[in-house]
What does this fold into?
Amino acid sequence: MNHSLSSRQAKVLPGNAGVWLFIFVEVTTFALFFLTYSVVYRLNYSLFDQYKAVLHLDLGVINTVMLLTASLFVALAVNKARSQQHTRVAWHLLLAMLCGFVYIGIKFWEWQQLYSLGYTLHTNTFFSFYFFLTLFHWLHVILALIILNNFRSRYQKANPPPGLEGLQSAGSYWHMVDMLWLILFLLIYIA
It folds into this structure.
């Protein structure tokens, strides 16, 4: 009986427990924002639909593809770290970061376009939510890029490389940011 228990590996969350607590707090915060947006949307359906039409759906799709692609590269980096292919880890993290920078640039350009058309945080309820939620998420992407760059640099230079747990924590944070964008994209651009 003990042999069967020892032969099975215990399934645990990847990364550090403290990071998972932080992720839980972040997801809860965003969930409250999303819930509030959904309630206000239901109360102002025609206003929200009118101004959603102003958004660049094609840019939202491109940003979604960029973040999903970045998540793929982060997952590949963790996989390469497990097999101790450290230069490949740094390479995959760099590719993930490039996708993240494309997202950052496109979102910034989209904000500039909307601003040039006269839409700001103070235009109406829809744009208050749009600018607040997308800016809040954008800041999370920037933080995730800083974290990924830290690990990219450490895997590129360090001998021995950093432990797998830290990279798994960074990857878990990135995937959380990606998941939040998917929800945000569906709420603001699609629903």
Observations:
- Helices lie at 2-7, 17-43, 45-52, 57-82, 86-116, 125-157, 164-190.
- The two ends are 52 Å apart (CA to CA).
